[in-house]
């Protein structure tokens, strides 16, 4: 070992142990280098693997660190030539940075309350531009060949700024950023509902983008393996934030992506080291932590940490002093260094180690100030993107180190307050202009004028050329795919329409109807059954044999139940998606299928069947994002209600999902009681979504309770779809109207009979298949009348069926607030019975008595309403309470 190669300061290893024999260490390192030179890197890796195995065998080490040194994964010698015009691309990026900044600052100077984000896009601009210019494919008008890109939501202004240069958005659009009501505004984040021709996927609720990206990539493979679409050349890219990776959904499905070898998937994590309020890991290193997470999950990890200006310094660092310095520096300090100038970095980073200081002894403060992080270097990013696109048999994550607020100087660059920076003073704006050499006068800067180069300028011609080479502009959303024929209801639903008293549950009916749809020649292949490890619970085991369970590798084992009729059958072309115990994963699969009409130009019909309690309550944010994305499909909330799931208890019994569903504008929610109602609703929804292309989805609850199923009365279909129709009348003269839904409707029917036979009270019973649909219709009629006072008022469906002042008693298996949705639109006294409170374990009959929704409580509620109206004496109510053994002293169920 030559004297010049010897370290000038004592070297310590990763565990803090000093090097006792530098000469011996040098010999080992030289031997490794010799193997690489003469036998190649594969041989060197083999020897390292054997050494690691031996070290573990003799108890020397437990395991190797799950992360690599704090440097770029791709060395300079393996970096491919840059294929683009760097000068023009940097110029375009600077223009977009300015327009994005101006857009946000203008909106907040004008109104002061609109918000918006500048710093996130400032850190990610090179990432986006590299993708737009060289990787993100647009495909043809049908979506064939198109990549799917998940954009970091806080960077939306930058995407708008690019669309402005492309001519897709006007200055008027940019002027109305976050002013969607006041003018031709742009929404805050990617929202397909609000910009249906522009944004493809929503990412505004952080953490939802990563899990949806994974399942979209998997669904591409699913379509290809089933022979429905050619997705071989399509790629899913997700640009996310390092702070965003704290969300459980961000990392919850990483192992699925590796397990299914999704090499059509790349995450690009914008590691600016900052969350909304400060460092992501002030006392640690988020990049090393994320590398550990992704490596452990089986992903290919590429780190892009340092720009090209560092290459010469690394070349001189033969003893890796700089790497040791990096490893010892926590993110909180990196943030401080990023906010300071070259002189500060020389003193407080390089100057704290003599060997590191010597590496930059020839550099001035200005030279050090020009050292960039890798996420701001097009050459380094291109090498990473190209390597990711070429990776086979596993997904890739690129960890790109950037500065939050890059270019904002003292107004926000690497500052704690960067995320909240929405206004800049004139001096800061001029400094920004000067840093990026923008052709703006002082007056134009002060006015925050948007800048667009001349139409035939080198910049705009280059921009168009690059997008033409990649198939067109992005983001871009296609509104629909070709319609799909739907079978006649009678062809597959005869068992439900003509049940004639046969006992079955509505869950059984739903599964049989699904099986019928699967057998249809045209629609059947488009149906995607999805479960979260509950297929047998819901009686879907027959689908294992009928359509198979999707697996990208088929079935590599003989299942334990191979000799049975309904054995567990996995197949490469399987149709059923059995997701395991992950509601978040299952709903993400549903979203991928429910948006295939737009993403792939191929309308699919997903049915996700699950415990109803584990839907809106557990993954409600993902369902809301699905609504934003204009999803089409069925959510089947099985074992629904608070009293139909005997024995399970508090966290399994659902009493609120219909109330939440009612808050989603394009969700059509139904609670059918009878098999024929289930059939009519599924047929109606299928036709609306698959044949008519409506941007809506259906939530339908199903119960596991068997009871006698009547045949469908003539003319009932319209009322079923609208939400209310008459099912029975008892007694000569109607004195009270009873409404029921789902599994409580049989109790309501019994109550109607009891009122007539035991109390001489006439009752009409209605099935309320959807209180939310009734409420929307009534709200619409009320609004029309209010805004058109001179026109004849339209009567709502509720008003048509429930006229007059006779009391109305509504009972459901859900909280009272659900039937009370229609209370304002009923003329008579409205009494709601429901299952407010916590669920608990017991039999159905005891649960219904406890929650006061059984037939006896319904009778008492009807008699009490009549007594309040003066129709009958109150003594009759007291008599009923005593006869049925009800206790006035029992605590209300919602209090215990």
TrEMBL record:
Domain Transketolase N-terminal: 149-313
Cofactor(s) recorded in Swiss-Prot or TrEMBL: thiamine diphosphate
Top-rank taxon, per record: Bacteria
Transketolase-like C-terminal domain: residues covered: 723-854
Domain Pyruvate dehydrogenase E1 component middle: 491-710
Region: Disordered, residue numbers: 1-22
Gene3D superfamilies: 3.40.50.920, 3.40.50.970
Function, in words: Component of the pyruvate dehydrogenase (PDH) complex, that catalyzes the overall conversion of pyruvate to acetyl-CoA and CO(2).
Name listed for the protein in its UniProt record: Pyruvate dehydrogenase E1 component
Organism the protein comes from: Methylobacterium isbiliense
UniProt gene name: aceE_2
């Amino acid at each position: 070992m030559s004297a010049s190669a010897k370290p000038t300061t004592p070297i310590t290893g990763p565990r803090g142990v000093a090097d006792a024999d530098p000469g011996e260490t040098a010999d080992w390192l030289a031997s490794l280098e010799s193997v690489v030179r003469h036998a190649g890197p594969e041989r060197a890796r083999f020897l390292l693997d054997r050494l690691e195995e031996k070290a573990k065998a003799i108890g020397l080490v437990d395991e190797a660190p799950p992360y690599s040194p704090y440097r770029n994964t791709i060395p300079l010698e393996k970096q491919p030539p840059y294929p683009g015009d760097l000068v023009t691309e940097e110029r375009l990026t600077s223009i977009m940075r300015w327009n994005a900044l101006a857009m946000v600052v203008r909106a907040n100077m004008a109104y002061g309350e609109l918000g918006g984000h500048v710093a996130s896009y400032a850190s990610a601009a090179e990432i986006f531009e590299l993708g737009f210019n060289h990787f993100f494919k647009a495909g043809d008008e049908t979506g064939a060949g198109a990549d799917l890109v998940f954009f970091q939501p806080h960077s939306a202004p930058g995407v708008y700024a690019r669309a402005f240069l492309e001519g897709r958005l006007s200055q008027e659009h940019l002027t109305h950023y976050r002013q969607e009501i006041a003018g031709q505004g742009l929404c805050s984040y990617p929202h397909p509902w609000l910009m249906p021709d522009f944004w493809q996927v929503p990412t505004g609720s952080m953490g939802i983008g990563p899990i949806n990206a994974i399942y979209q990539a998997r669904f591409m493979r699913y379509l290809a393996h089933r022979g429905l679409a050619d997705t071989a050349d399509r790629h899913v890219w997700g640009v996310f934030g390092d702070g965003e990776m704290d969300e459980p959904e961000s990392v919850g499905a990483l192992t699925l992506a590796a397990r299914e070898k999704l090499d059509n998937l790349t995450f690009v994590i914008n590691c600016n080291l900052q969350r909304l309020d400060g460092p992501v890991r002030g006392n640690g290193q988020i990049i090393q932590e994320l590398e550990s997470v992704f490596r452990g999950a089986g992903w290919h990890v590429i780190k892009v940490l340092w720009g090209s200006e560092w290459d010469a310094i690394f070349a001189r660092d033969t003893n890796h002093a700089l790497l040791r310095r990096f490893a010892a520096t926590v993110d909180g300090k990196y943030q401080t260094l990023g906010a300071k100038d070259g002189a500060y970095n020389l003193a407080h980073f390089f100057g704290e180690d003599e060997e590191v200081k010597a590496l930059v002894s020839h550099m001035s403060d200005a030279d050090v100030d020009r050292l960039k992080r890798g996420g701001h270097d097009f050459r380094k990013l291109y090498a990473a993107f190209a390597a990711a696109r070429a990776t086979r048999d596993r997904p890739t994550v690129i960890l790109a180190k950037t500065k939050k607020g890059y270019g904002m100087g003292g107004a926000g660059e690497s500052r704690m307050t960067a995320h909240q920076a929405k206004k800049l003073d004139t001096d800061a704006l001029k400094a920004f202009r000067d840093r990026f050499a923008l052709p703006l006068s002082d007056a134009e800067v002060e006015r925050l004028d948007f800048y667009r180069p001349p139409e035939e300028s080198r910049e705009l011609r280059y921009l168009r050329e690059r997008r033409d080479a990649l198939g067109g502009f992005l983001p871009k959303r296609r509104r629909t795919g070709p319609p799909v024929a739907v079978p006649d209801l009678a062809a597959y639903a005869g068992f439900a329409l003509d049940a004639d008293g046969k006992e079955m549950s509505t869950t059984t009916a739903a599964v049989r109807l699904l099986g019928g749809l699967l057998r249809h020649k045209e629609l059947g292949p488009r149906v995607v059954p999805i479960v979260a490890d509950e297929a047998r619970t819901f009686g879907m085991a027959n689908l294992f044999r009928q359509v198979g369970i999707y697996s990208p590798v088929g079935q590599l084992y003989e299942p334990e139940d191979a000799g049975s009729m309904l054995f567990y059958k996995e197949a490469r072309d399987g149709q059923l998606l059995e997701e395991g115990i992950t509601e978040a994963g299952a709903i993400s699969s549903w979203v991928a299928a429910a948006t295939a009409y737009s993403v792939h130009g191929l309308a699919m019909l997903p049915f996700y069947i699950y415990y109803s309690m584990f839907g809106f309550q557990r993954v409600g944010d993902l369902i809301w994002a699905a609504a934003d994305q204009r999803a089409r499909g069925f959510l089947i909330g099985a074992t629904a209600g608070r009293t139909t799931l005997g024995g399970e208890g508090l966290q399994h019994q659902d009493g609120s999902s219909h109330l939440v569903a009612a808050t989603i504008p394009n969700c059509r929610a139904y609670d059918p009681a009878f098999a024929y109602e289930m059939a009519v609703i599924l047929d109606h929804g299928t036709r609306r979504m698959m044949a008519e292309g409506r941007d809506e989805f259906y939530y339908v609850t199903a119960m596991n309770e068997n009871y006698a199923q009547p045949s469908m009365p003539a003319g009932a279909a319209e009322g079923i779809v609208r939400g209310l129709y008459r099912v029975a009348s008892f007694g000569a003269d109607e004195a009270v109207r009873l409404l029921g839904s789902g599994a409580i409707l049989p109790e309501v029917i019994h109550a109607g009979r009891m009122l007539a036979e035991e109390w001489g009270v006439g009752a009409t019973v209605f099935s309320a298949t959807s209180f939310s649909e009734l409420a929307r219709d009534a709200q619409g009629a009320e609004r029309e009348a209010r805004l058109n006072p001179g026109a004849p008022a339209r009567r709502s469906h509720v008003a048509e069926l429930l006229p007059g002042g006779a009391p109305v008693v509504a009972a459901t298996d859900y909280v009272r607030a659900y039937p009370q949705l229609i209370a304002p639109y009923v003329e008579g006294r409205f009494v709601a019975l429901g299952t407010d409170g916590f669920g608990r374990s017991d039999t159905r009959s005891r649960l219904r008595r406890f929650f006061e929704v059984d037939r006896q409580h319904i009778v008492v509620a009807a008699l009490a309403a009549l007594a309040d109206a003066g129709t009958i004496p109150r003594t009759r109510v007291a008599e009923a309470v005593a006869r049925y053994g009800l206790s006035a002293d029992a605590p209300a169920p919602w209090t215990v």
